[in-house]
Amino acid sequence: MGAYWRSGLVKLGLALLVFGVGPLVAIIVLAAIGLWPDPNPNPIGPGLLACLSFWPGLICLIVGAIRVANRERVGDRRGAD
Description:
This protein is mainly α.
């Protein structure tokens, strides 16, 4: 698991997801529990941010995880020889 945290693509993907989708999720949750001033918010800005950052973040996360898994698999194969 530590190899995934050392991957730059995994870190970038997680950062895009957290900082891109996080504000929209926070507004939705705060409105649902009644702590947001508007009980029925229409957060255009955070929605656009989430729309523009979700797919790049998810793609970076998946590609980074695949690269780490392939690197570990090749390393295991070399050790068996």
